[in-house]
């Protein structure tokens, strides 16, 4: 943990400043020790360079598992393709120069696919995740001096209010138990004039027909290693079927979705091996989370306007995207 992070960290229970207690206190960073609240009542460990504000085991265990198994899969620096950067800039509508030298909060960082993009734009990025995915993020991006990784809870964010110029959460909030409450935790983190971007799976009649929603009542209850092992066997067999159905004229783009497998063939410029890896990762991501709560455009717009944002936009950019500027 870089000591500069202390200036914006706060005890998530009391809001008090935190002090560092560590034997490794000579340089700018510490790998171990703890953070103590000002009243001395709350203590939070720093382990492997990451401050930890949540229990080790929690509802996001599946994400910790998947991002530590696929720690580099979706990093542009690994795939050699600007897939994550394209999604980031398209969803946010921000420009690289906007992020230069700004504090940026990444909610649900996973292995760091979007944090890498923001870091490359010159931002100081605080990458937060509820799961042990923080370990993959830190391992992947620790060479960036402006990276700060925190394991924390969106419902009790361990930061000083109004400190961030940008907050984003892409593909994450729908996997929390109470999506409205998770969203409501983000606006206080922004400074006046700060900008937010969130995205969600869209709730619609068409999305309700997707096979993942028929299967999830069963698959989300399976032990995660067991589900992963089953998908590791099934995905290489199901993906070619989905691809073949996709070639059927007119109906193909609908028929291929009847196969419960993530299929990016023809839409993402990946090698055959990468296609299989992305497919396995995202199929597991469909079927394993404890929570999956898609949202409507109307709901997202109401959240943004009700939180006092101006220049509110809700649009389809792969996912359902909401963005705005804090008054």
Word description of this protein:
- This protein is α/β, with parallel strands linked by helices.
- The chain folds into 2 domains: 59-127 and 142-150 and 161-199 and 296-326, Vaccinia Virus protein VP39 (Rossmann fold), CATH 3.40.50; 205-287, no CATH class.
- The chain has helices at 61-69, 76-79, 83-92, 96-99, 113-120, 133-141, 179-184, 205-208, 211-219, 224-246, 252-255, 272-287, 297-306, and strands at residues 18-21, 33-37, 43-47, 50-51, 103-107, 124-129, 147-151, 164-170, 190-200, 309-317, 319-326.
- A 7-stranded mixed sheet has the order 7-6-5-8-9-11-10. A 4-stranded antiparallel sheet has the order 1-2-3-4.
- Helix 7 (179-184) links the parallel strand 8 (164-170) and strand 9.
- Helix 1 runs parallel beside helix 6 (133-141) and helix 10 (224-246) packs across helix 12.
- The relative contact order is 0.13.
Can you summarize this structure?
With 327 residues, the chain is α/β, with parallel strands linked by helices. 35% of the residues lie in helices and 20% in strands.
Overall shape: it is globular
The number of distinct helices, counting runs of at least 4 residues, comes to 13
The arrangement of helices and strands along the chain is EEEEHHHHEHEHEEHEHHHHHHEE
Average pLDDT for all residues: 95
Q: Indicate the structural class.
A: alpha/beta
Question: Radius of gyration over alpha carbons?
Answer: 20 Å
Question: Regions with pLDDT < 50 over 5+ consecutive residues?
Answer: none
- CATH superfamily annotation of the largest domain: Vaccinia Virus protein VP39
What is the number of beta strands?
A: 11
The proportion of residues in beta strands is 15-25%
Helix proportion? 25-40%
CATH class of the largest domain: Alpha Beta
CATH architecture of the largest domain: 3-Layer(aba) Sandwich
Count structural domains.
2
């Amino acid at each position: 943990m870089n000591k500069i992070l202390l200036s914006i960290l706060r005890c998530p229970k009391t809001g008090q400043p935190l002090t560092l207690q560590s034997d490794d206190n000579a340089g700018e960073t510490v790998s171990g020790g703890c953070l103590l609240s000002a009243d001395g009542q709350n203590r939070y460990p720093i382990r492997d360079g990451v401050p930890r504000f949540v229990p080790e085991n929690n509802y996001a265990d599946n994400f910790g598992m998947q991002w530590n198994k696929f720690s580099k899969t979706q990093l542009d620096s690994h795939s050699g393709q600007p897939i994550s950067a394209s999604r980031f800039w398209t969803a946010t509508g921000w420009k690289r120069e906007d992020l230069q030298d700004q504090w940026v909060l990444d909610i649900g960082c996973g292995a760091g696919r979007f944090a890498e993009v923001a870091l490359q734009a010159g931002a100081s990025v605080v990458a937060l995740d509820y799961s042990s995915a923080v370990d993959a993020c830190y391992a992947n991006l620790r060479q960036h001096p402006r990276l700060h990784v925190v394991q924390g809870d969106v419902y009790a964010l361990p930061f000083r209010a109004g400190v961030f110029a940008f907050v984003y959460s892409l593909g994450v909030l729908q996997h929390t138990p109470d999506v409205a409450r998770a969203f409501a935790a983000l606006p206080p983190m922004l400074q006046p004039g700060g900008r937010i971007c969130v995205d969600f799976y869209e709730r619609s009649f068409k999305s309700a027909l997707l096979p993942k929603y028929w299967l999830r009542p069963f698959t989300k209850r399976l032990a995660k290693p067991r589900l992963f092992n089953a998908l590791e066997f099934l995905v290489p067999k199901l993906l070619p079927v989905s691809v073949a159905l996709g070639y059927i004229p007119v109906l193909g783009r609908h028929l291929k979705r009847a196969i419960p497998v993530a299929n990016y063939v023809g839409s993402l410029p990946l090698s055959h091996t990468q296609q299989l890896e992305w497919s396995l990762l995202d199929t597991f991501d469909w079927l394993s989370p404890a929570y999956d709560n898609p949202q409507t455009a109307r709901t997202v717009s109401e959240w943004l306007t009700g939180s006092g944002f101006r220049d509110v936009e809700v649009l389809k950019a792969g996912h359902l995207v909401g963005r705005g500027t804090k008054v």
